[in-house]
Amino acid sequence: MGKHQLDQYQQDDLFLGTPLVQVTLIGLVCFCCPGMFNALAGMGGGGQVDPTAANNANTALYVTFSIFGVLGGGIYNILGPRFTLAAGILWAGEGAIMTSYPTPNRKGTYTSLFWSIINMGGLIGGLIPFILNYHCIEAESVNDKTYIAFVFFMFADALLSLATLHPSRVVRDDGTRCTNIKYSNVYTEAVEIVKLFLNWKLLLIVPAAWASNFLYSYQFNNVNGLMYNLRTRGLNNVFYWGAQMLGSVGIGYVLDFSFESRRKRAMVCIGIVALLGTAIWGGGLASQLNYSRHDLPKRLDFKTCGNDFAGPFVLYFSYGLLDAMFQTMVYWVIGALADDSETLSRYNGFYNGVQSAGSAVAWQVDSHKVLLLSQLIVNLSLTTVSHPLLLVLVMLAVKDDDKSRLADTDFAPSAAQIPGDNGYNQLKTST
């Protein structure tokens, strides 16, 4: 490598090789693809009258996500982020970047940053069908222009992924690198993936992982999809994903800044989410008792239904708020279990694999016309069970002293910690 190439390489990394830039980039990648997908799914039935086709398609999608989610952490470690930001592998890579790149005391902030960006995609994606179908008061399906607009955003995803860097080129704010390993190998990753299923820490996360996406089929198809007309579903989408942004920022602040003790911050957050979740799902239960599959509600319109619209609207907004708080909290807990990119890519891959398996089952549950009240009760039960298990995990596995955790990793002081150098002295010597 010549001197000019080396200088250019170093200059690129000085800008791109920071946690803030890399987390923002992965957020923008997810803004364009999963964010838009979320907006379309949030319309109920993928924007169509009959949700059966969308349910079956989502089941196939999430089965694939589940398999490649579990394998994704290993694939990410072998190939790096630039070549793995697709399908289920994306979520392992996204989780690794979001939870391993920040310093331990800023993981809540960076998780909320990512969550806000991706859900900005859902918010804008919600505006698209709202605007394009605003005058279609009696329409049941979105028009073709809606799908074309979504495809346009998704094309930008591939271009943004080219700017992501390998973790070995990313330097945290405290001078440590996210990894000192360039690339892993197939044998190592295969062994480590098998070990995930015997890891007691991850087993305690399983109910939370299963619950985290299980709720979408119920909320999208059977709340937004059944209770509102087409244009109001688009409006609800805007506020649902907007609420996700607010919820993530709020809980992220508590996770990073509320108390000096990191363990205490986590325990307080779990308590807040548990209490808020019980109240919101309780409101959902009261609403659900008013209708069923055999006694469908009258479609609500935001302009003509007045007070009849207000209560259900607040409930749906609260569903979005709670979802973001819950998932930000779980990602923070996963991030508190390790600091290095290799370990956290596997942990996040496992989490997203279980999460996707739960989602695949949920879409089929709805496709088989299971009672709406039963679906709500299952969602409430899953989230309720997950809270005490997360509390146990925090008490047993999350340490207050960040320095002691850093000492347990392979990140001893190196050239990467010298201000203005970023580890390039060693690189220059070898060229």
Walkthrough of the structure:
With 431 residues, the protein is an all-alpha fold. It has one domain (10-164, 187-411): Growth Hormone, Chain: A (Up-down Bundle), CATH 1.20.1250. The chain is built from 17 helices and no strands. The protein has helices spanning 3-16, 19-32, 34-41, 52-79, 87-100, 107-132, 144-161, 186-196, 200-214, 216-227, 230-257, 262-288, 307-335, 341-367, 372-397, 402-407, 424-429. The longest helix has 29 residues, at 307-335. It is globular, with a radius of gyration of 22 Å. The termini are close together.
Question: How helical, in percent, are the residues?
Answer: over 70%
Radius of gyration: 22 Å
Number of domains: 1
Give the CATH level 1 class: Mainly Alpha
Shape, per Cα inertia axes: globular
**CATH level-two architecture:** Up-down Bundle
Q: Report the biggest beta sheet as strand number plus sense, adding barrel if it closes.
A: none
What is the SS-derived class? mainly alpha
Q: N-to-C terminal Cα separation, in Å?
A: 6 Å
Report the count of strand segments: 0
Regions with little confidence, pLDDT below 50 for 5+ residues: 1-9, 402-431
* CATH fold description: Growth Hormone, Chain: A
